[in-house]
Amino acid sequence: MKQLFTHLGLASLGLYAVVSPLNTLAQSRNASLSGTVKSDKDELVVSASVVAIHMPTGIRRTSTTDAFGNFSIPDMLPGGPFTLQILQSGFRTQVLTNVFLTAEKPTQLEFTLVPEVVAVGTRRSDRTLLESAVPVDVIDMRELALTAPQTDLTQALHYAVPSFNSTRQTSADGADHIDPISLRGLAPDQALVLINGKRYHTTGLINLLGSRGVGSVNYDLNAFGSNALDRVEILRDGAAAQYGSDAIAGVINLNLKSDNHGGNALLSTGVTSQGDGFTSLLSLNRGVQLGKKGFLNVTAEADYRGATTRGTAQRDIRSWPVFSYDAQEEADQLAASGKSYNDFRQVNGDAKIHNLRGSYNLSVPLSATSDKNRFYSFGGYNWRRGQAVAPWVLPASADVDIVESIYPYGYQPHINTHVQDGSAVAGFTFGLGQWSLDVSHVLGANRMRYDLSNSLNSSLGAASPRSFEAGGFQFVQNVSNVTMNRLFPKVLAGTNVAFGGEFRADHYEIVAGEEASWKDYGRGKVGASAGSQGFIGFDPTSAVTGNRTNVGAFLDVEADVTKRWTVGTALRYENYSDFGSAFIYKGSTRLQLAKKIALRAAYNTGFRAPALQQVLYRQLTLLPTSNGNVYSGIFNNQSDVARAAGIGRLRPEKSRNVSAGLVLMPSPKFTFTADAYQIDIDDRIILSGIFGNDTTGTRAAFNEALVRANADNAQFFTNAVDTRTRGLDLVATYRNSLGRGTLHVSLAANFNQTSIRALKVPAAFQPLQTDNIPGNDYIDQRQLSLIETGNPHTKIILNTGYEIGKFNVLLRNLYFGSVHTYDFNFDPLDEGSVYMSFRPKTSTDLMLTFKPTKAVMLTAGVNNLLNVYPDDVYTATYKNGRPPVGFKSFDQFNTYFENKYGRPSNLPYDFDILPYQSQQMSFNGRFFYLKAAYNIGL
């Protein structure tokens, strides 16, 4: 029997199959295949698709299991090898390779399918994807990592999940190096990220400078390589009561590979059609068996991403001239210098990134006789070196910051980072009778340091160095938790009870940079800026250390009242050392109306305490304007400036989330789900507008505090808005035989709208918000527009694939809806800024996969096949947008602007050197790529 298993290729795959010859059909000269498909509960699986592919010829035969789980495929070619695929909704697809058939000796197989269980949204270990009472996306990373154009996890999910958005930022300081994420149009820190079901730490970085998720704390999903993951589960429903504070928009659970054998080597490379943005990736994964039932799975990889630049080198003197705002003087001085605009081209796309990553997943039984008691551990480490570029410092706008003996014609500072992100989890699971006990501890840390090159401290004059260590920050989180879990199969139709507790300790620290990165030495030209140009270092007054602890307890009960009706509830209590306590809850239900249709709904309350980073962060930032750099300070709510301004302490955000959905399964070949939701968030934390010296005399104490802090402007974190987000998620999948191959089509869409329900403005700033002058408000226009219309209202993904023989072709179309935002208001202008409308865009990907042998897979593809670009900011403003509020036309506004400020309007800001903003999609254009994977141990 062992030799027969080896002959059929089953032993190495670890699949359960029983093979026996049947002599009753010995008269046939052809081969035949038949068998039975069951579940792991020994239940017959009806209407499962069984596909047999003759690998030498590509001939494909199919069958469907009947009411008894049986299938039969007669008149097959003898020999082989054949590849068998068994597909059924709610179960993981099973693939059997290297199967040989013998003429006149029919072969019978018995398959056991494993349910496609989900680990988020439920604590039952047997709940399948379609049985879930809340919507969950399950992304197969084993396939996506080997075939998709993207190598970063954030970008791979951006192009695979409609409700998930993550666009790379440019000229946004730290956000150039860590991609901000958004789930259901909400902020990065309003989702919760888990690794193997355990809480993952956030970064020390706060998104600033008007980037996506401005004022919020991010997760660095790219710290884990896609090839290290088995799958990603995205719970599209509030789950704070189940998993803890932050899970307002939902939960993203990264499941690491747990294979105890085999592995792969993945090589990927690509380049844009303009010859930049070169990428390369080498990833190695290996599974090792530990004892009879243990495993260790490790992944190591290195990848590189080159910088990109878009737009022409031509400058517009209204925005960023080199020498003068006068056209003739500009031309004369350019000629005299022997330079052209090509010498001052702004790097404005993706930052240059180097990554080294490693991760592991381990589990071993504590005894040879029982698998219930186990030790497990997993984690990862990521080292990243990034290089982004700040806007040029030029004589026309910042002559005082030009040191002729060092950079006579100006310079383009480089903002570089060293990012280190690490996590480690260790725990035990014990079987205590019918109960299971899980005890674990999680340690996570994120460290980010800035250094500047091609820069200077102009206040030092000719004595200035060209590179600086600018300091940075780090965040450390420790989480200990205990969970008891038990399924009572005879209570109602099955009831699962889980309860437990959690202790969390957070530590945040800002580290000052070297003295020359922040100090004003007064040795340069009059008015020369202090600190390193491009990114001023953290000064000693910004250096801060803070700690917080949190204790939580939860109860989670999920009951099948009948075999068709499921009801779940979760209760959670949390107490923070600095913000008091909260009690939140969730209720969910699922009703199977008929065999092919089900309804589901949920209601939950949420609670998100201000991140320690938001509570403590303080920094002076150099904001580049057409009139030179200005110092804008972000002051925490414990600072003198905040107290003088009347800014109160930050309060937790509170949410209410209601959802209702429909699940249709008209046939095993087609499934459809629709889920509507509404998320109300009170006291939402954002970054305020930028405030300078108050000339009205109503905020005299604030003016004095600004002077003491050596700042021109100030911003604060504040509980300023109540929002409402409404949306609809649609997911449809279809798979069927077509000709000699298999057609698979999926359509997924997210429709999303966020609105401001209320503004909350401190008394001292209420005149600003109600004075009908839109540009200098307590909550500025850009912040509000990023919340309401900064994410695409519509995102639709259509995948059309066809598999035949050794080939698989996939055409992917992505529709990104329109985005509308106000521009930056760096100065800040009382008139506000221009309104930009970015029209809908559709991007098309084409991928061709070839499997010459069972161990080798080659993929060639094109991302953005039709070379579609988002609207540039000038088009989004002057063709699609509108002038600041109160002006009927751009001509009227431009005339007014020049009369008031003595120069032509430079709005939208930086439209010549930064022609694109990171809105719906990448602005790198067409991207060609190749991937090669070698599978070990097949």
Automatic annotation (TrEMBL):
One of its GO terms (cellular component) is cell outer membrane. GO terms for molecular function: carbohydrate binding. PROSITE patterns: TONB_DEPENDENT_REC_3. Keywords: Cell outer membrane, Membrane, Receptor, TonB box, Transmembrane, Transmembrane beta strand, Transport. Its main location: membrane. It is a multi-pass membrane protein. Coiled coil: none annotated. Residues 368-865 form the TonB-dependent receptor-like beta-barrel domain. It is found in: Cell outer membrane. Transmembrane segments: none annotated. InterPro entries: Beta-barrel_TonB, Beta-barrel_TonB_sf, Carb-bd-like_fold, Plug_dom, Plug_dom_sf, TonB-dep_rcpt-like. Residues 130-251 form the TonB-dependent receptor plug domain. The keyword Nucleotidyltransferase does not apply. Belongs to the TonB-dependent receptor family. PANTHER family: PTHR47234, SECRETIN_TONB SHORT N-TERMINAL DOMAIN-CONTAINING PROTEIN. This is TonB-dependent receptor. It comes from Hymenobacter jeollabukensis.
